[in-house]
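Need residues for this backbone.
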């Protein structure tokens, strides 16, 4: 943090603090080198970062990300995504979906490199999410 003596020193302190926070947030979930410049991967990281804040809709974002990780075990209510997410997060969801549609197939967690499985496990634990279970009825 830089301290200045001029009349704009408060503004300088604010900008340096903001830059430090942004740098720290980017390092929380580093992307794998081959995905680091892709807009969809960057949007996925922003969504993952949003899940670290306590908001009433971050559970929806977590469901979406876990569904990308394992769509058989985790379900997402797309209607709720459409209705309840704010514009910024909804645009990121659409960006991730568009990117996943046209990318070379890979497991979603691979975009976070070697820590990808741990990132998804942390997300599962943070929201106390359990895999969707199918129950077969005897006929």
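Answer:
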């Amino acid at each position: 943090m830089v301290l200045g003596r001029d009349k704009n020193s408060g503004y300088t302190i604010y900008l340096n603090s903001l830059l430090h926070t942004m740098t720290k947030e980017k390092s929380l979930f580093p992307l794998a080198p081959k995905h680091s410049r892709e807009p969809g991967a960057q949007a996925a990281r922003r969504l993952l970062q949003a899940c670290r804040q306590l908001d009433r809709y971050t559970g929806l974002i977590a469901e979406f990300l876990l569904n990308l990780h394992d769509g058989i075990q985790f379900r997402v209510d797309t209607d709720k995504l459409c209705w309840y997410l704010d514009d910024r997060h909804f645009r990121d969801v659409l960006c991730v979906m568009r990117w996943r549609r046209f990318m070379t197939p890979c497991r979603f967690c691979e975009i976070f490199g070697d820590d990808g499985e741990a990132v998804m496990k942390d997300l599962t634990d943070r929201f106390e999410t359990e895999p969707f279970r199918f129950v077969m009825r005897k006929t």
